[in-house]
Amino acid sequence: MMKMSVGTVCSHADALITERTRSTPSILWIELTSRCPFDCVFCSRALLRGRGQHLDFDLYSRLIAELHQPQVIRLNYSGESSHYPHLVEACALASQRGAEVELVTALAALPEHKLEPLVASGLTRLTISLHTLDAEQFQQIYRFSSLDAMRQRIERVVELARQRRPRPLVVDFAFVAMARNLSQLPAVLAYARDLGLTHVAVHPVIRRDPIPERFEDELDQQGRLRDDFVAALRTGVDDCRRDVPDVTISVSTPELGPRLPLTAVPRHHPWPLLGAARLHDCDQDPWETVHILADGRVVTCEVRDQIELGRLDAHTTLRDIWSGPVYRAFRQQFVIAADSHCRTCPYKRAQLPQPLPSRIRAADGGAAGLLSGWHACEDGAVWSRPQAVLALAPARWPRRPRLRGKLPSAADGSGNRLTVSIQGAEPLHVHQHGHQAIEFDIVLPQPAGHRGPLVYRLEVAHPFRPSDSDGSDDRLLGIALYAAGA
User: What predicted TM-score, i.e. pTM, was given to this entire model?
Assistant: First the structure.
């Protein structure tokens, strides 16, 4: 067996970090404004941002223009985006780049005459923050506007969304779960069902900053969810899934699941990392996701949003920061789990250290070789995003690495194409024709004389969105991977 020096191993690790990182982010959270008329009990916006400010629209326009194949642009963060004076124009610009454009809003404060322009703006998903259907509790939680105003706007926007052509606007609810409002979850689910909505996202309350509310019924002294609250939330969600089966419930944290030991296969691990465990990725990973705040600051994610990696201005582009030394240093710290925020983050996926695999089987849950652009394994397959990266240890001659999977059709039946590329070799193409998905089993290109990891980039010409035909799954998907490697 060939031995590699420490320098060679480090060089390979740096190369994998480079290969995992897109030229510009494909998933962006852009805070259009840090101003908000609401004063929700769980929000730290006023503490951290004070009066707040709007994002300069010229800066926003330049930012959108420099993106390369963005997939999802979420136009919100700590402020209330419906108060941004250029909201409709911002949605339209993002939509013109071909991205899914999403917005989370408390909606009750948006003037009714602005609902129709917003629905027609190119927005693809509107998530409404609805935490109770009790009028008195609404005042206690939001501390602005009223439940009546919220319901009037919800019902109007749902009506407008259904009328939009050619693709209806997806509307759903987000519910911040606290001990005080957990009993309201069934009512919110039933309301969604009665409106014809198909999805509610449940977010257990968090407290990262010293806001007045301590949430002692939900959180321990370290700010982690208490076991008794997790149990109550799990029961509440299970009951709602049984009683309102027409509405899908997603829970933002894996803390409601069983506590399983780490293995070589990456999995969600919301508890603090111990020993030699390593990070594989997270829900807002540093390979394709970024947050831009209203004052131009660029940060990695929600958990590290007070650590600035750069600031956009007239002279500094997102690409400058994304590819710059500060971001590169963070990615190196990320992969070895050296950042304390990441080690304790509930949204990470972790694993025990292992060599790069020579073979990946979806039936085993995937592997560390699925570097970026992959969803969790489901039904014996791992779905990719429209662009994805995988890496394999070199195959021993004369064996050649293969790729086996399924390529869906284009929505209009005009045909689809998968391109597989690796530096130093001609790209390989898989063609699909007509309306039926095809299964493929191909030999992957392997450059002559190549040494070190084999890093393959996969890209589909026409992403597949399951909700276009049935259901509420609005993910943009590329291929279904069954196996890769020798």
Answer: 0.90
